Amino acid sequence: MELAQHPVLASLIPVCLLVGAGWLAGRMRWVGPEAVRGLSNLVFMLLIPALLFRTMSAVRFEQLDPRPVLAYFPVALAWLLAQIGWRGFTPRSVVLALGGTFSNNVMIGLILVELAYGKPGLVTLLTLVSVHSLIILTAASVLIELAQARQASRDSAQAPRLLKTLWSAMRASLLHPIPLPIAAGLLFAQTGWSLSPLVDQPLRLLGNAFGPLSLVLVGISLALTPLAGHWRAALPVAACKNLALPLLVALSGWALGLGGLAWQVIVLAAALPTGANVFLFAQRYRVEQELTTAVVGLSTALGLLTLSAVMLLTAALAGS
């Protein structure tokens, strides 16, 4: 088999080329920061919901396997806490721990999993995506509020704010253009109906536009991300995300008896680069915004190499 025809590389090469094309567009300033924000809104508010709803609209509850969620999230939460314990319980350590835990499951993960593992793999990933932000971001929000309260030595005065933050984080995670279409698609599938071609065809076209546009946007964002002066501090965080978390999730999946495609998908999900939501989190709390931007950029750049290694290794171990 020629190297370029290896199934893992055959799925990674188009991803790398599209990210590279976006990087070139960003370096040449063909697309500016304002246009990137507008295109990102288009992707998240229209293209992603179309893809997610259409994918899940034919999935019955009995087809869903809860084991990937059980293998992934206890480990991810434990890893989040371990990183905070390693750096000390401060707002800065919470933000950096989130950078070492929160995956870019949408912009990169969806298209990569679909190319590599097809619709069955995509369904497994969407099972994780449906609760990813709710679990990880809600936990991080509570932890940073506690860290800020501890730092200010005003724990009792901060209790109402903590409860308010918990509710706001949960509501924002549920009322979001990612979990909502997943839930709506699943509920539609349980009716036994099928989408009319008049509806299915536009959804298919919108979903098809998501993959290339999202990867080009990743490349543009990478080109616009300043790493100078921050890459040394960002490297350990990127290593936690790209290397340590997938190893832990792989061991967890094995311990639960998960194998084959589902195991490969959860390890890939853990190996994906740091998601952009981490920067938004840092921006919200005004903690290490420049360093977090560098973490996202460096993790993404290194991800082109680490994802290749993880996918090749899991394919060999899973015997596929």
TrEMBL record:
UniProt-listed GO biological process terms = transmembrane transport
Q: Which InterPro entries match?
A: Mem_transp_PIN-like, Na+/solute_symporter_sf
- One Pfam assignment: Mem_trans
Query: Is Cell division included in the keywords of this UniProt record?
Result: no
**Keywords for this entry?**
Cell membrane, Membrane, Transmembrane, Transmembrane helix, Transport
Where does it primarily localize? membrane
Q: Which domain of life is it from?
A: Bacteria
Topology relative to the lipid bilayer, per the entry, is: Multi-pass membrane protein
Q: Where is the signal peptide?
A: none
Where is it localised? Cell membrane
- Give the residue spans that cross the bilayer: 6-26, 38-57, 69-86, 93-113, 125-147, 168-189, 209-228, 235-255, 261-282, 294-318
Q: One cellular component GO annotation, for this chain's record?
A: plasma membrane
The family assignment reads: Belongs to the auxin efflux carrier (TC 2.A.69) family.
PANTHER family for the chain: AUXIN EFFLUX CARRIER FAMILY PROTEIN, SLR1864 PROTEIN
Protein name, per record? Transporter
* Taxonomic lineage of the native organism: Bacteria, Pseudomonadati, Pseudomonadota, Betaproteobacteria, Burkholderiales
